[in-house]
Amino acid sequence: MTQVSLTNLIAGARAGLLVSFPTDTVPALAAIPEKAALIFAAKQRSQDKPLILMAASAEDLWPYVKGNVNEYKVWQELADKYWPGGLTLVLPASDCVPKVMNPIDPTTIGIRVPNSAIAKNILAQTGPLATTSANFSGQPPLQTMTEIEVQFPKVLTLEYQGEISGEGVPSTVAKWTGINWQILRQGAIKLDISSNNQI
Questions:
Q1: Which helix or strand (DSSP H or E) is residue 12 part of?
Q2: Rounded distance, CA 185 to CA 52, Å?
Q3: Signed CA dihedral, 23, 189, 88, 46: sign only
Q4: Per-residue pLDDT reduced to its tens digit, 129-172
Q5: Phi-psi region of 178 (alpha: psi -120 to 50; beta: other; left: phi over 0)
Q6: H helix count then E strand count, the chain
Q7: Position 85 pLDDT exceeds 60
Q8: What are the strands of the beta sheet with 52-54, ordered from one edge?
Q9: What pLDDT does residue 166 have?
C-alpha cells in the first residue's frame, strides 16, 4: 500500500519522491522540478512531451518564465481571468526551470494553477511541482487514486475518501508566440483568445 496521509505525501514530494494527488482536471503525477526525470521514466513518456509546472498561485510561477513588461501584462490578464483553473500557459522559460522539465525544448515551460483545494494545499507547502496526468504515456488519464496505486505501485498516492471532484478532462493549453496565443489543446476551458490578448 502506497496510499499516504497529506502530511506524508508533502514530505515525500519535498524529499524528491514521485507523488500523485487529485486536481481540478485529472489526477496529477508530480515531483519537484529537479526530479522531473522520474516522471518521464514512470510514464514511459517520450522526451519531446514536456511536463507542466503547477503551483498554488501565479506569484509562485512568474519566476519560472521571462518576458518584457507588456508580455507580463498580457499573461497576467489571462491568469487573472482563468486561474485557478484548467488552463496551461506555455511561456518562455527562465533560468529557474531545470532542463529535465522539457528536455527537447528547454526554452519554454507550461505553467498552471489548479482550481482544487487539495492540490493547492499540497503545492503551497511543496512549492511548484513538475506535473502531468497519472497514466502510462498514450493511455487515458487514470481517474481514481486506487487505479493510480495499482498502475504505479511505487508512487505515493494521497489517501483519499470519496469521489475525486476533477472534471476528468485535461487542461486547455495555450502557447505564447511572442505576439499572441496559439491553442495547442482545447480542454477543460473554452478559451476566448480576443484581440486584447495580443501585443
A1: helix 6-14
A2: 14
A3: positive
A4: 999 999 999 999 888 888 898 999 999 999 876 555 666 788 89
A5: left
A6: 6, 10
A7: yes
A8: 3-4, 156-158, 19-21, 28-31, 129-133, 52-54, 108-112, 87-92, 172-176, 181-185
A9: 65
